[in-house]
Amino acid sequence: MEKHVLKAKTRENKNPRMLRRDGFIPATLYGPNSPSQSLQVCRKELSGLPHGSLAHVLELDLDDKTKVNVLIRSIERKIIKNEILNIQFYKVDMNKLVKVNVGLRFSGLAPAVKAGGQLLELFQEVEIECLPGQIPDFLEVDLSRLEKVDDAIHFKDLVIPNYVKILNPGDEVVVKAVSSKVKATAEEASATATPAQS
Asked: Structural domain tally of the chain?
């Protein structure tokens, strides 16, 4: 995937609210063997990046002419307006392995569903290890392997590039074909276990 460039500069001596009012997002750059730096990035430039690029390596173009390869480790958002409040950039060495989460893409038709079963998706993401420049957009889950109710696809069953290592336990279930009754029970249990938002 093409590496996108994002300009960043040393954070001005303003409180975060004022920075955001002026169109900038407070950010922090950190990494192994280097002190953390307080930065700011233009909200408009950040929003102009392709959505998928935020899960891949970006090149930060700093105001001292330094160019740094980074991954976004966290984005703090305001829940109600989904406004970005803060970004954490992690400096990476393109020759060293990194651990990241990428999405799972479910494809194909499950014979078990045609026979009246339903899909119970237990994971939407997978943790992987690879070189920064080889982070895939997603890993594919082939649902056609689910031939009958109670069939399951585990992490060890996923077909992956040879340069990617899955860090989730291989015997964990990614998706399973279940009866309608089992899925309803599972969804009810999940809703009960989720704390109510205040």
From this structure: 2
pLDDT digits (tens, 9 = 90+) for 97-131: 999 999 999 999 999 998 899 999 999 999 999 99
Are residues 83 and 104 both part of a single domain?
no
164 and 144 in a common domain: yes
Task: Write the CB contacts of 168 (distance below 8 Å, at least 6 apart in sequence).
Answer: 123, 126, 127, 155
CB 72 within 8 A of CB 51: no
What's the whole-model pTM score?
0.79
Q: Is residue 9 packed enough to be buried (19+ CB in 10 Å), middle (13-18) or exposed (0-12)?
A: middle
Q: Which structural domain, as residue segments, surrounds residue 163?
A: 98-186
Measure the CA–CA gap between 116 and 137, rounded to whole angstroms.
32
Question: How far apart are the C-alpha atoms of 43 and 111, rounded to whole Å?
Answer: 46
The answer on 177 and 103 residing in a single domain is yes
pLDDT digits (tens, 9 = 90+) for 174-192: 999 998 766 556 556 666 6
Per residue in 28-80, pLDDT (tens digit) is 999 988 889 999 999 999 888 887 777 889 999 998 889 999 999 888 888 77
